[in-house]
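If your schedule permits, I should be very grateful for your opinion on a structural question. I would ask you to consider whether the tokens describe a fold that such a sequence might reasonably adopt. Thank you for your consideration; the sequence and its tokens are set out here.
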Amino acid sequence: MKTTKSIPLFKTLLPASLLCCAFVTVSSEAAVLMKPTAATTLNYPHALTPEKVNPAITPPEKVLGFPVGQRTATPEQINELVKLWAKESDRISYQQYATSYEGRPLHLLAISTPKNLAALPDIQQKVQMLAKPQGKSSSDIEKAIKELPAIAWMAYSIHGNESSGADAALALIYQLIAADDAEITAMLENMVVLVDPMMNPDGRARFTKMLEQHRGTAPNVDGQSMLHTGVWPFGRSNHYYYDLNRDFYFLQAPETRGRVALINQWYPQLMIDGHEMGSDDTFLFGPSREPINSNIPQSKHKWGKIFATDQAAAFDQNNWTYYTGEWFENLYPGYSNYAEYRGAVHILYEQARTAEDGIQLNNGIVRTYQQSVHHQLVSSIANLKTLAANSKAMYRDFVQDRQLVASADSPYANKSYVVLPTANRKRLEHFVSLLQAQNIEVLQLTAPTSVKRVVDQLGQSFTQKNLPKGAIVINARQSEARLLNAILEFNANIKDEVLLEEYQRTLRDGSSLMYDNTAWNMTMMLGLTALEVGEEISDNVKAYEPAALQVAAKDENLGWLVNGDDDASVAFAARLMEQGVQVRLIDKAGQLGSVVFNRGTVTVLRSDNPQHADLADKVMTAAADVHTDLHNLTQGLGDGDLPDIGGAHFRLLQAPKLAIVGQSGVSQLDFGAIWHMVDTHLGIRHSHLDLAALTRADLRQYNVIVLPHMMAKLDPSASAALKSWVEAGGTLISVDGATTQVMAGGLSTVKPLAAAIEDAAKYDLSLQREWLASQTTLANKAAINSYLVPEHISLPWLADEKSKGLDKDQLKIWEQWSAHFMPSGAILAGRVDQKHWLTFGSENQLPLLFSNHPLLMSDDESEAAVRIGVMTENKMVPSRKLGWSTLPAGQDVRVRMSGLLWPEAAQRVTNAAYLTRESKGNGQVILFAGQPVVRGATKGTERLLLNAIVYGPGLGASNPIKL
């Protein structure tokens, strides 16, 4: 048969308006694409480029193949254009500030006059002086302000599928460098415009590929079409499906780290962040409405209104609709709005999403993609003009505030944050690095020091405490006071009127004023023990220096140890097992020779590995790779009851063979967070499975399967396949919504609260058994030693007569009522079973980021490794009922650590399990109520998941699947 081919129309992603010219075939036998009918509603009458331009600058359509804004430019096209313009124009200084995970460059273009560009180092030096004005004379400050140009940072499309911003950036750059316009020339003489045109190149690449794959011959204006909606994992996030607009102080992504490093150099006066929102909306810009973080300086609210007035006038001139505030609140400090805490006026753009072609709105009008781009372009120019007119006054406000927050009259005076010493090197050094990346000063105590007015993370107050040597100190009164307090204060202040409206909404329709989490304290997210201190600590302090890394000897030992306190110990074990090295884990704290270690310590014995001639090299390389202290094991005998080298406490591990389940129905954010954790923390080989293909997959190739949070139901056939696999020795780990599906599918005896409330007494009995088993003293020693049968036994699950609690019918009503009040991202106190292998590396109390997650009810058939609520001693209180459970006499329970937690929700979540484990056949099922890995920041709960993945096959499965 004769073969023919058509010209690949969609390889070049021709816009629908140009397809009429493209229907050509090489052979008369080839299939012919039909010419679409005319789409006059897609003709946008306004050009996005100026008429009078410098002919030496290449117009964007020469590279794109279409007028800028007519369709979505690919990352490759954007890269080509900005590099070309940097060569052609003397108004651009170009630099690459980061490389994405997929190897794509991120650019910053400084646009100004040649004179200003030549003086950029001097400009930055003056800006740095204004950012730290302490010790500078008022005349020097005023001189710098008069000499400095305005500085704007224009950033676009941090979400890759919110594409109009990056196309507007191209139009803006071209207008600034090519327009023959006296007003623009004059503006650039007194301004440096920093353009970050494409903040998420990997997400944009994924999005533009989806556009290519879903485009037909005719234009599409249906917002429900996959051309506009995209498909899993969509294009919003970066390579690891991280939301880069939540990463500005957790700094997990290379895109963010590079960006923040440059913002540190520039301290821009204005920061624009171009986004998109729902397609049937209009255009939103700042200022925000309440709740507003109280650490944002008041001057930013003033300037926000001034910029909004000018931007609104520009939209009115074009007869465009828009709004401010409404859903846009400003409580969480981790968006790009973090620049407000650094001194910038931050303006969010939210353009109604159009993707390509256009969107037919509810009123029948078609909004074209080009119009969407035009909205962002006009907004950008309007904001630049406002900055030009107000730059000097904004500099003076900036300096005044920077002087205030570091002065004796600072609102942050007499306050500091202390992180107590820990053997968890990896976590502590990560914490310090995050602060230092934001120019926050970090100190360390050189000697024990007494401090006053102390509050701990459970809200307990102390008039005085002795801090140990080595504690980390961050004094609140410093130049970056606003940012550091926003991320380190234990609770963000929310106004009473906001709380009242939030409560009303909760009861009326379940809606919320809050757009994101209400808790984000960095020490709690990282799982570090910290204190708020009511004084500045200036005695016995020095600049923080990391402890020197301990490197063990290569020869003349029985083996090596890595302390289980360090998160890096898990990676050390995983990487060695992947190389075939036999690794053991010590499940009890002890001492061998001079080495003192905690439970969960990883050891490699020479006697286990005679086949590895290069064992020492492998061990030392693994320790260096994960940056952990490596100790020599020179003695096998532990003192007294401490573990000995050949005893049962030295447990042999099994190498994990991991699969993570993804695709449609699974949260791409949670999937990406777990994937990123494995790749960045462990670096071991693993597989990604399609949720829809679980029944067809040969699960015998894996001994650990992780089900991330999912919105879809788990198919009964998939549940059956997983059940058979678990019973054969697999370790199944589920998270949040997946846990709900695992319970519904009969894979676990654990139940959600609503399903277990009928049998509340049974679960309360299990709870009391756990509580009594954790006691360290005998309360009934006299009865134990007595020869008489005691007449009265105190039953711990029977509450005081004055507080008998609710009957079964009342409990059902209580469960339904309290369900309305579940938190939206609060941090709760978790109490940790220190005997359980899943909690290696955890303190007694563990912060848990918790939202409307399933509440797990664990009875005697399962093990609750972590429960919600930490017991604190109060000898004055009797035993009493709290919802379904009983509180022991002499104990209070503390639940809220940070964020908004309604009292009804606090009672509801108390004593529910966060993490459970149970045996099933030869395998095991491990359930997480919440998401242990959030934004790469929740290192405390992340450690639980690492333990489950790496140690599960060896410690929890009685006969793990052999691979």
User: Anything to note?
Assistant: The first strand starts at residue 92 and ends at 99. Residues 416-543 form one domain.
